[in-house]
Write a structure and sequence with these properties.
Largest sheet: 6 strands, parallel
CATH topology of the largest domain: Rossmann fold
Radius of gyration: 25 Å
Number of strands: 18
Strand order of the largest sheet: 5-4-8-9-3-10
Bound molecules: adenosine-5'-triphosphate
Strand content: 5-15%
Length: 588
């Protein structure tokens, strides 16, 4: 059976195998298994469409599609726009676990905690929890913050929501009446708390689980190989398996490479659409020029095939390498023979914690500077929040922790020891004095630059880092949201009073926005961020240095194998892997 859909961009044909047609007719709990690109997401949306079209849903009832990341959601939304007519989409809610759980906690959290609940955005949480390197001590503190102060950490969303549903039959009934069918995407990466929530949701709603055990890449946050079996034994679903059906990169050997990778059969085998390139490790970033050439080649290739809508993902193993690569692509290079290699315009999917806190540091200097009340203690407190929280979910290094503790101590006692720390205090004083003497005009961009330039003059690493992180706000496309929050405060008060809070709120809101992002052009991101997405071409670059390679720890080899498979199978047409010559990736 072939289904045909059309939107403004073109005509889409979906061939439905017998297994898929059976799934469309099945009822009750379902389990949909299949390799990368086998069409799990697509068939789930077609199933949702069929249910909606059958007219069984009443007004206010929805099919809920739950996924992990906002970026995945935007792809599912694009897909839904193809197969759904506009009039049907009000019966489909596509959401992240976080956003779904927070909505429930916001309205019913009072059943668990007497305090008014306040969301603890990841960067603030990281700063608050920086002293806890032990996992269980950290959990105790997260729970204390919730129970005593009403501060809700993202990690608590799923388990608190599960608790709410287990205690309140009424709430559980309301939810199942609102969402009689719930689709769970990327189920193999569900952690124990999410599973607890799903167990509650599945008591009264039908579940449609989409999974591929071999795409499990979130073991470090609690994904468990036993989860699919748990679902089977708890919910007795009808199972469907699309095996290695390949709709994403049909006609290529990309999925074959991914499957061979699992058994090691890829070694010494040639593939038409997966290429390994070996680069000599040279001084500085010189080997990055080879990567840049490869991206330019891919751009040319794709532009000649589909001038408007093409996409490339450059996938890196770490955030730091991602930023190095992004900086490199941003620059124009001149080769020894005089050839000019232009900058490559690209998008970067970077972690937001560092830039977000840097924005808060600058917003505070603008706020207090505009009323001549900048003071060193507040600056140091903000600086410490940046030092502690800038790595997001990862705790700060021991060195940073000790430094921030000493600086916070200074804000209470006025005492500090150590030459470097004294320089930080001197520079902080200078920064606050200079911000107090600035003439702010309300022209947000120029006021921002004035403050940022003052910070740029600092020589100490921790203050310089604020400046560096702020640079990435542009890459994160935060400029307009910052601009509007700051302009609004100036319009109301003729100064930036309240700007820090406005920026904080705006950034928190953004965290929940399901961005309608389309992944066109060149996109630089980590492998984990690429999950659930697809691109015409994928270029994977291993980097040189310890800690940046896919595999530098032999014990983690199985996880690296799954990561590499996920990365490769994001490609529709071609995948290229760059690995160092003489020290190449042992999976190749
Ligand atoms: N039956 C089909 N016929 C034609 N194209 C399809 C079909 N099903 C899916 N596709 C296309 O194949 C690509 C992959 O589909 P989809 O995202 O549904 O797969 P998936 O199994 O969810 O992938 P992954 O697990 O790798 O994220 C999409 O571009 C989709 O439009």
């Amino acid at each position: 059976m072939t289904l045909r859909f059309q939107d403004l961009k073109g005509v889409y044909m979906f061939d439905l195998s017998e297994e898929k047609q059976k799934l469309l007719d099945a009822t009750g709990n379902l389990l949909v298994l299949g390799g990368p690109g086998s069409g799990k997401t697509t068939i789930a949306l077609l199933k949702a469409k069929k249910i909606i079209e059958s007219g069984v849903l009443q007004s206010g009832q929805c099919i809920l599609f739950l996924s992990f990341a906002r970026s995945t959601i935007s792809r599912v939304e694009q897909h839904a726009n193809i197969v759904f007519m506009k009039s049907l989409t009000n019966h489909l809610e596509i959401n992240t676990y976080h956003s779904f759980a927070w909505t429930i906690l916001k309205s019913h959290g009072y059943l668990l905690c007497k305090k008014q609940l306040r969301l603890l955005p990841p960067h603030e949480a990281a700063a608050l929890l920086a002293n806890y390197d032990n996992k269980s001590a950290k959990e105790v503190e997260i729970n204390r913050l919730f129970e005593q102060e009403g501060l809700t950490h993202f990690d608590l969303f799923a388990c608190m929501c599960a608790k709410l549903l287990s205690r309140s039959n009424a709430l559980s009934t309301i939810l199942s009446e609102t969402y009689p069918v719930i689709i769970l995407d990327e189920f193999q990466d569900t952690n124990a708390d999410e599973w607890a929530l799903i167990t509650q949701l599945g008591r009264k709603s039908n579940l449609i689980v989409l999974a591929d055990a071999e795409q499990r890449i979130y073991d470090f946050r609690g994904a468990d190989p036993a989860r699919i079996t748990q679902y089977i034994t708890t919910f007795h679903p009808i199972s469907f398996n699309f095996g290695n059906e390949n709709n994403r990169s049909n006609g290529t050997d990309i999925v074959q490479f991914g499957n061979d990778l699992l058994t090691g059969n890829n070694k010494n085998k040639k593939y038409n659409n997966v290429e390994c390139r070996y680069y000599p490790i040279r001084e500085k970033n010189n080997q990055l020029i080879l990567l840049k050439f490869a991206i330019i080649e891919a751009c040319k290739r794709l532009r000649s095939e589909t001038p408007k809508e093409w996409s490339i993902a450059v996938l890196l193993p770490s955030n730091s390498l991602m930023l190095t690569v992004s900086d490199f692509l941003e620059k124009t290079h001149k080769l020894k023979n005089g050839t000019i290699i232009p900058r490559i315009q690209h998008e970067v999917a970077i972690e937001t914690a560092g830039p977000s806190i840097a924005a808060l540091v600058i917003a505070r200097l603008m706020e207090y500077g505009s009323i001549k009340q900048c003071n060193i203690n507040q600056f140091l407190i903000d600086l410490c929040e940046h030092i502690r929280g800038r790595r997001g979910d990862k705790p700060p290094s021991q060195k940073d922790l000790i430094l921030s503790t000493a600086l916070l101590e200074y804000t209470k006692t006025g005492k500090i020891t150590g030459k470097n720390r004294k320089v930080i205090i001197d520079e902080s004083k200078r920064i606050t004095e200079r911000c107090n003497s600035l003439d702010f005009t309300g022209e947000v961009a120029s006021d921002w630059i004035k403050v940022r330039d003052i910070i740029s003059d600092a020589t100490t690493d921790c203050i310089k880092q604020v400046r560096i992180d702020a640079t990435y706000l542009r890459l994160l496309h935060k400029s307009s949201i910052l601009n509007s929050s700051l302009s609004e405060t100036w319009r109301r008060f003729d100064n930036y009073k309240g700007a820090t809070e406005a920026v904080r709120n705006a950034l928190t809101q953004e965290h929940f926005a399901t961005s309608a992002k389309t992944w066109t052009g060149v996109n630089v991101m980590t492998i984990h961020k690429a999950k659930g997405k697809e691109f015409d071409e994928v270029i994977i670059y291993e980097g040189n240095f310890p800690g940046q390679r896919f595999i530098y720890d032999v014990e983690k080899i199985d996880q690296a194998r799954l990561n590499l498979r996920v990365a490769i199978t994001r490609a529709k047409k071609k995948a290229t892997i760059f690995t160092p010559e003489g020290n190449s990736c042992c999976l190749l």
